Amino acid sequence: MKKIHSVIFTLVVCVTLLSCKDNFVEQQPIGSFPGSVLTTPDGIDKALTGAYSALNGAGGMDRGPGNILFGSIRGGEAHKGSTGGDQPQMIEIQKFEANAGNSNGLNNFRFYYDAVYRTNLVLTNLPNVEGLTDAQKTQIAAEARFLRGHYMFQLKRLFGNVPFIDEAVIGDPLVPNTDESGNFVDAWPSIAADFKFAAENLAPTNADKGRANKWAAMAYLGKTYLYMGNEGDNANYALAQTAFNDVIANGVTNSGVKYKLNNDYHANFNSLTENGPEAVFAVQHSVNDGSDGGYANSSRDLQYISPQSGGGPGDNRGYGFFYPSQWFVNHFRVDANGLPIFNDAARNADKIKSDDGIPAASPYTPDAGLIDPRLDWSVGRRGIPFLDYGQFSPSWVRDAAAAGPYISQKFFTSKAANGLAASRPENNLNINVIRYADVLLMAAEVEARIGSLPLAMDYVNQVRNRMATNTGSKENWVLNADGTPAANYKIGLYPPGSPQFASSAKALEAIFFERTLELGLEGHRAFDAVRFGAEDGTTDTKELNGFIAYESTLKGYLSGGTYTRVPDAIMPIPQQAIDNSFKDGKYTLEQNPDY
């Protein structure tokens, strides 16, 4: 068992002791942690572990580490799934029609500010703890600030104009999101400061695999600078470049292994091979570990996305959410050289064949055209093996008419891993927050913006090269039972002098597309589209409206949806949070523009 897991749930810290003094969504605190407990080394460690425990999202698609709803579904990679009428507020988010009363937005806002409170509880009590050395206190403070940076990062990129709440205001958390002049405050510098402190003070390795180390903090610092650069302060690109260069040259895992790409792509999504050299920071999960129900520290998203029937992954115990879109699947069509097809019309005209509308009893042969092999480690589709469950079965799809014929794959573990919780769909698969392929692609983006275009291409080719050859490994290309490739797979590398890397704009087009292929269904795409669009003025509108326009011809519920940068780049501040922010005769929270 992973050490940090046994601490979290045998002590039940996050449930019974760390009740939230909810900043904007509860008028009164619903519990407290006795101060005397927090003045001991054991007590402060429990409080820190409670802060870590929030990483798994406590069982919600709207707040889990995979960013299923706000990153992937909102980004067009997937449909809501389930049945057409289930959870209509999720459709509002996907169509960019959500208002300040949207319950998923409230859940996310409330959860992450609760998580911030947990980190501040550690930081405000740490100076009073007796029996720890200064070095031990610094390590604890650095871990807490890393976690606070992570939780505030989630809030900032989704809601935009949010206040940064630190330990100085833990007792009076109604902090305004505007300054004295009425301008919105910017939380990015404070988030960057947390990651910078963590990078400067965390140890490079840690016996507990689930804890943050120096290099996870450095990677997150680079990511934060990248977002800051995208939003207009381009001086931050050079800071991001420095951070990524350091991670690429020197970064190691908690076990001291130098970061590199796993040899096999699927090793990133296999509980038997997790915490490998590509894992920069991952949320740790376990099942059947003595915790509440045996699944309290599991990958809770599986409760929602596992099939309801057909005997597939999840053992018929889920709700059937999160179905990949045809628009997303079409991105994996490649040209004769194994390179992406960037023109939307041409790509969709040569769409990858599906069995949508074809009865399960009818014969079906999957697409014979050239396909990027990462598709079949991302999406379950008819005619292709699904992990070690045999051929994908249409019976696993809850309502194809509502959401299409595919299911997502990256959140499931194999039968061989024996990773399911007893009598539950949840499993023990870790969720990657940052993996090394992501670092390489972010580094490529920075190079394309301010540095070397050849180096940007090299980073992209490193990511592509992993899957360019069928090695015969069952974790590399998806193989049939006889060892032959399950589809007509091909990946090519960009050649020297490629016109796709002849200019910054063309290189960024390739990098954005590569992020969809490499990181698809991992919760990045909506945020990538928004930040690229903030910089170039077009990517978000083109990509997000392109999805709606294409998919609405297949699934009519999307008709009428439209993305407009203001207000849709960010979610509205939940109205309940605004209502609860009343202080000294006025509301401390202002709504985002145009909501």
Automatic annotation (TrEMBL):
Subcellular location(s) per record: Cell outer membrane
**InterPro entries in the record:** SusD-like_N, SusD_RagB_dom, TPR-like_helical_dom_sf
Name the domain of life.
Bacteria
Q: Which UniProt keywords apply?
A: Cell outer membrane, Membrane, Signal
Under the heading PROSITE patterns, the entry gives: PROKAR_LIPOPROTEIN
Q: Name one GO cellular component term.
A: cell outer membrane
The record's similarity note reads:
Belongs to the SusD family.
Its name, as the record gives it, is Putative outer membrane starch-binding protein
